[in-house]
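Example (one chain per record):
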Amino acid sequence: MFENFLNNRLLKLRNRHFLILDCFFLSLTPFLALVLRLDADIDFDQYFTGLANFTFIFLVLNIAVFYKLGLYNRYWNSASVDELAKLIYIIFLAIVLQTAVFVLFYNIPLFSFQTLPLSLPLLDGILIFFFVASSRFSLRLMERLNERRNISYHGDRVLVVGSGKAGTSIVQEMQRNPQLGLNPVAFVDDDNDKRGLKIRGVPVLGTRNSIPEVISKHDISKVIIAMPTAPGSEIRDIVSICRKTGVQTRTIPGIFEILDETVRIDSIRQVQIEDLLRREQVQTDIKSVADFLKGKKVMVTGSGGSIGSELCRQIIKCHPSEIILLGQGENSIYDIHHEVNKRLSLTNGQFFRTEVKTYIANIRSFDRLDNVLRETKPDVIFHAAAHKHVPMMELNSCEAVSNNIRGTQNLIELSLRHNVEHFVFISTDKAVNPSSVMGASKRVAEMIVLKAAREHQKNYSAVRFGNVLGSRGSVVLTFKRQISEGGPITITHPDIERFFMTIPEAVQLVLQASVIGKGGEIFVLDMGKPIKIIDLAKDIIRLSGYEVEKDIKIVTTGLRPGEKMFEELFISGEKYEKTIHGKILIATNASQFIPDQFDINLNLLLQKRHENNKEAIISMLKLLVPEYTSEAGIPVSYMNI
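Predicted structure:
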């Protein structure tokens, strides 16, 4: 009863109470310091006046220092190493100031400091630190003891894979909230130096290879993978081990989801296909991107799309003076406009203010774009608007040329007219040795950007990358829809491979490339190893709780027009150099691969688009992109678009 009463009283202590306690301690520590210095052999008649003056002067001085440096505006119930470091810093400054004042006043008879030992300020400071730190961290100690007392031993017995900061955070959350019904029993971690240690009272019992043994021996009912920066190969291996044991497996979000601020590090969810396809964490220079975009007017075309909307989310973190949302679909633009404003309302402060401007516009309309750029005068344009669906563009080649080529040409011409300093074109791996109208149209658009950069000495560049998970038309979404309908999952060929990247990761690298660029380059993002689509399908089936072929069948339908077996990222003859960021390469000579009579053939192509003659369009595309191989003459009507 008394223990509970004491706990409740301690946990209710606030900064006003600590101020009173500090005054008490500061009144007491000079006397205790003198006792320690003189081994309790004190002549009070000799020391009383000096000690009284010392106590009063430095009580006022130290309280003023504590208040000025923020000791009384912290929440000590959740004190951590940061608070301890701050406390050490404050006490150290107080000791230095106290010693300096003591020495300064030492020979002034009025204060009688000459009767006191010179070491008194130092001893007093050490005692102050002991009492001040003890009073504050006693709250944290009591809270920890209460957590241990309240741990539920009747909930799911949990094995946490990964004992780093994320794993520790997960265990801490379970211990603080016993109502979750999760009882952390053990860690496993591939760091052998941690084996046998205890973290928050939970033992580290081995590596990932020990998972089956730990599950069996400790009656584990749930496994949580707490490795936000681990590559997909590791997550895949751990999930495979856990699947064989039949134990429910969960994970925390990957690092890009956490950076996107859509989830917390202690959020627990089911393992998703994105987790299995994660790659090693990319070390990007976030500060350089922020410095580059801060205070600028930034336009994003196609800002309602998958890549465009993520660009907007990450750009506003860099505090541009304006973000200009431009797109054709009013619903998608409305959604990102609402989201951006909501995020800015939570982050905008008195030191910066980002204005949001929204324009519904089709990039094929030269006059409309001219009006928008004249009004907004952007410093930077990220051009993400495009038609990207390969089979659809095979059926509608005139639209691919009109949107991807003419739209990009409009933007480049107007960017030059309105003196836009930086232009980043979002390209695709399908522009490399294209076999589709869509890929060839994106390759021509690359050339338009590079030609402008070369002729006008502008910082205009292109960024190439492969498929992004979760984007509109993504194969992953198609597979999930087919599973929800009971199957089958359809793939075009058992050996077909694709590169994959998450949307936040792709956008982060695009922003990084925009900082590196000087103009006229093509940046190629390292997409890692290609993934077999059939393996992707099998993983999604298993993650959905079904068995391959038994519950959900996989059916092969044959390659579609314009579709390649394997995607490529590099064009023969382009010279690629590494950048300071390991996942970004530069094709430094990319602007040299613009064919002769490019402008003449481009104008002819743009004329042909109005005729809706696919054969003529393909012929003109081949003149502009010699490496383009088409399937002209093959029927393009098929069921599985």
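Caption: The two ends are 71 Å apart (CA to CA).
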